[in-house]
Amino acid sequence: MHIYAFDKIDGSNIRAEWSKKLSKKTHFTNGFTKFGTRGEMIKYTNNPFYEAVEIFKEKFSLDLDRIFNDEKTFRGVEKITVFGEFFGNGSFAGRHDWKEHHDVKIFDIFVYKKDYLPPSEFIKIFGDLDICQPYYNGEFTNEFIDKIENNLSLKEGVVCKGTQDKRVFMFKIKTHKWLQKTKELYGESDY
């Protein structure tokens, strides 16, 4: 099985929904209407994750709006969800030091009524933006698993993606170091 593996940044998942209708209507939002984390919508500025919304808009909304309107892959698509990772140097297992500097990197694109963008296409179209870095492109082997699990330079691990029967699949491999630290800090039951 052939995979692409991307650096798994340790932070919190954020998502932003783009609408072609809104994109054509106003340049104020660059087409982005809804923002959220994995478990909640980010509606108000007093939500601590609103910082991720501001970073996303500043770094990505203009370029993504242009790509979604110009790139032939997205012709006829009405909605797209962009997934990113919100993180800082002190972020660990979804917890953050709210006093430090944070950033956002893009790691996935979901095309409404279709599927996630295949990893090769994601890299080709969005590789010039600040995406989670590709770490590996090749066969999925036991040696690869061992290399990731025992890696000391990766902060958390990797996200592996590929395609099978024209559908995108994905899974994570965590480092032993990250898993051990998680167990020490939070116990076995939380992670």
Layout of helices and strands:
Elements: E1 2-8, E2 12-19, H1 20-25, E3 32-37, H2 50-70, E4 79-88, E5 102-111, H3 119-126, E6 134-139, H4 142-149, E7 157-164, E8 167-174, H5 176-186
Explain what this protein looks like in three dimensions.
The protein is globular. The strands form two sheets. Strands 6-1-7-8 form a four-stranded antiparallel β-sheet. A four-stranded antiparallel β-sheet has the order 3-2-4-5. With 191 residues, it is α+β, with helices and mostly antiparallel strands. 28% of the residues lie in helices and 33% in strands.
Derived from helix and strand composition plus strand pairing, the structural class reads alpha+beta
Basic shape: globular
- CATH homologous superfamily (4th level) name: DNA ligase/mRNA capping enzyme
In N-to-C order, the SSE pattern is: EEHEHEEHEHEEH
Number of helices: 5
Report the count of strand segments: 8
**What is the CATH architecture descriptor?**
2-Layer Sandwich
| CATH fold group | D-amino Acid Aminotransferase, Chain A, domain 1
Characteristics:
191 residues, four-stranded antiparallel β-sheet, 8 strands
Summary?
The protein is an alpha+beta fold and 191 residues long.
